[in-house]
Specification:
The protein is α/β, with parallel strands linked by helices and about 290 residues long. It has helices at about 1-10, 25-35, 45-50, 60-70, 90-100, 130-145, 165-175, 195-200, 220-225, 235-255, 260-265, 270-275, 280-290, and strands at about 15-20, 40, 80, 105-110, 150-155, 180-185, 210, 230-235. The chain binds sulfopyruvate (SPV) and magnesium ion.
Length: about 290
């Protein structure tokens, strides 16, 4: 409740908020520690954690458990990536109830058909539902939330599906009219041109959300200059950082035939104890173990 209110307030102040991806409570704790404004509970990252493609294979329950566990360990607002809403408007109603109860501050629902295919893959099957069908899903989400501060973010994949800017703008406008608090517009172009053009053409009142993974040259100062972006999501940087770091350390241990060489380059066991709240557990032992 508290974090949904603070997220909505900061959006209303028209500040650019920065959300970082996370796939576990531990990564969420590190997002908070680094100073981001929100946590992006990414479906892509959780799928990758299971070694699976992001194609509606990881269940809502698995993702929801992750969000609930994160909410228990961080106070930053959690923006939950709920893909297509796991089905039609009835599934959306169930999902919104569950994610709100789990402690999320916002959900992002995308206008692809279920089961979805991850957005950034080359040659992906990118099928969208009809605009009116998705309008019904957004209306269902808005009607379901209990906390009026809980944010419903509509995501259009029209650019990802190569439908062109005109359709992307039309869909975004329809979703705003349906009650979405923000509109996420995704692009997989290698340059920011497509997103910058969309943002310049956007006449809606609600702020936009972008995920500059494919076009990382779009810096926060350039995003601010566009004037219409409310949230920038760093969509998969937690899992990519993990993969690079683990590969490096594992490879060096195999090569050296021991762990001495990497010991100074990785987190100490004491640091991990701290992230686990070991100090508090010890105090509880002292207080209550008889
Ligand atoms: C995710 O992180 O799960 C996203 C962003 O939805 S993307 O993978 O770029 O579609
Ligand atoms: Mg996703």
């Amino acid at each position: 409740m508290r974090s949904a209110r603070s997220l909505r307030k900061q959006i209303a102040e028209r500040r650019l908020l920065r959300a970082m991806s996370a796939h576990s409570p531990l990564s969420a704790i590190l997002v908070e520690e680094a100073g981001f404004d929100a946590i992006w509970a990414s479906g892509f990252e959780l799928s990758a954690l299971y070694g699976l493609p992001d194609m509606s294979l990881v269940s809502m329950t698995q993702h929801l458990d992750m969000v609930r566990a994160m909410a228990g360990r961080v106070s930053l607002p959690i923006i939950a990536d709920i893909d297509t809403g796991f089905g039609n408007a009835v599934n959306v109603i169930h999902a919104v109830r569950e994610y709100e109860r789990a402690g999320a501050a916002a959900v992002v629902i995308e206008d692809k058909s279920f089961p979805k295919v991850t957005s950034l893959v080359t040659g992906g099957r990118q099928e969208l539902v009809r605009t009116q069908e998705f309008v019904g899903k957004i209306e269902a989400a808005v009607a379901t939330r209990r906390n009026p501060d809980f944010l419903i973010i509509a995501r259009t994949e029209a650019l990802i599906a190569s439908r062109g800017e005109a359709e992307a703008l039309e869909r975004a406008a329809a979703y705003e009219l349906a009650g979405a608090d923000l509109v996420l517009v995704h692009s997989k172009q290698k340059t920011p041109a497509e997103i910058e053009s969309f943002a310049r053409s956007w006449q809606g009142r609600v702020p936009l959300v972008i995920v500059p993974t494919a076009y990382p040259e779009l810096s926060e100062s350039r995003i601010r200059a566009l004037g219409k972006i409310g949230i920038v999501i760093y969509g998969n940087h937690a899992v990519r950082a993990c993969v690079a770091a683990m590969r490096n350390v594992f490879g060096r241990i195999i090569e050296a035939g021991g762990a001495l060489a990497v010991d100074k380059d990785i987190a100490s066991v004491a640091e991990v104890f701290h992230l686990q709240n070991m100090e508090v557990a010890k105090l509880s032992e002292e207080a209550f173990l008889r």
